[in-house]
Amino acid sequence: MDDAQNQIDHAPLPDARELRRRRNVVIQFVHFVTLNWKMYTLAKRHH
Amino acid sequence: MTRVVVLGAGVSGHTAALYLKKKLGRAHEVVVVSPNSKWNWIPSNIWVGVGRMSATKVVFPLAPIYRRTGIDFRQAKAVGILPEGDADDPRGAVDVVSTAPGTVGRTERIRYDYLINATGPKLNFAATPGLGPDGGFTASVCTPGHAVDAAGRLAATIEKLKAGIRQTLVIGVGHGSCTCEGAAFEYAFNVEHELRAAGVRDRADVLYLSNEHELGDFGVGGMTFSTRDGQVTSEKWMASLFRERGIRAIVQAAPTEIDADTITYRQIDGSTSTQHYDFAMLLPPFGGVGLTATDRAGVDITSKIFAPSGFMRVDADYRPRPFEEWTAADWPRTYQNPEYGNIFGVGIAFAPPHQISRPYATPDGLAIAAAPPRTGMPSGAMGKVVALTIADMILTGATVPTRSASMSEMAAACIASTGTGLFRGTAAAMAMSPIVPDYSKFPSTGRNAKETTGDIGLAAHWVKRMLHTAFIYKAKALPFWWLIPE
User: Fold this and answer.
1) What is the pLDDT of residues B25-37, one digit of tens each?
2) Do A23 and B423 touch (CB under 8 A)?
3) Which domain CATH number covers B294?
């Protein structure tokens, strides 16, 4: 029997700081730029 | 004048056609055969399926784009390939049946010098009784029409929840051999996001039902991400996300029968269970589109060109071996058919040599195995590489493929939406390099640890929304479209 639900029930939850980081517009804008650059370089390097 | 025929106008076929025309110009002919009159940016269908995007935003008509770029477009369905031609002409040919208004059913034989098979999948809803929106009981987000239907069903479910009636929403796969679990994952989380926005989350039970062996497998054997908190398996990463959002999960499952309110499924221990549902979106398994092939004498040679699954054989190592003996080197590099050097198969249309995830089965042999995804980023890359190879063959006289794009060398980025909204949206940004693990290069996890990353947040949602606009811009062949990478 799979234990996916057991894994979910015992998985760590993000703390309040992490949840704020995920929604902070300034931090996320920096992430947006970084993510785009990472994806662009990944595509250029490997395709 | 050389003629290249492209079967299919999805991500792979359309990309191939645009690059071919760009390279070959007016001196050579590019013909696209597709039964659909419109191009669809499928990754955004999930937003149509929750009613957050209009279906018109994810499609555009192909004919004006092809007219402007000088590509010959035939709205038709390919039914047969004649790689050696016929009694009248030794050139290869494709038999097609028109699907265009006014000429529906009219047949035509189109000659080619080079052929790209990018037909995509047949959505095999018939594989599980009761599966699918047409004649079955479940919704789908595979096409814009299906997604609109799913949005309607979801809205009705939300109305019932608002009326205080508890509802069970099951989202996942409809068969043990499905692929594209990522799309089901995205839809489950977008639905959960919408239920929260509607203020009815507490009355809804959301369940993810999958054939993956574990959460976060996605048909690629899972990943080990480099994250802000160090190395984390995709299984643990996903389990945390499922707990955060209160979504239950059942994995290692193969739905075998669906009726109006119950899904019957089996798991790898051989057990049979049932799950009640009020709303269900279950993806179908994919199969080849059923193309046949005949030689010049009219003898059926379908099995020489196509695998039993209906997908096209290419330069992969298809020898059957145990899972432990499969290697990254088995995967195709050029997508050239081994029997006919002027035929290529790309995107979902090529036959993978084997699973990426370890395949499992019930004790009595029912396969429960997540099939390898060949969509999105790698699909576009394959289309481009094959187009450039064919252009090299035509323009420089190259006799062997000049470019390669193996999934065991290619990286891929997957932005999985977990809810939409300019400031309330989130997505999981996952990158893996390579797609097919290569344990000879990366002994511990099969992948480059620095390039295999995961992050969740608003930024990833913005990226997903930006990619929607960018790829539709590219697909419309607007100025400098080729600067946008696949």
Assistant:
1) 999 999 999 999 9
2) yes
3) 3.50.50.60
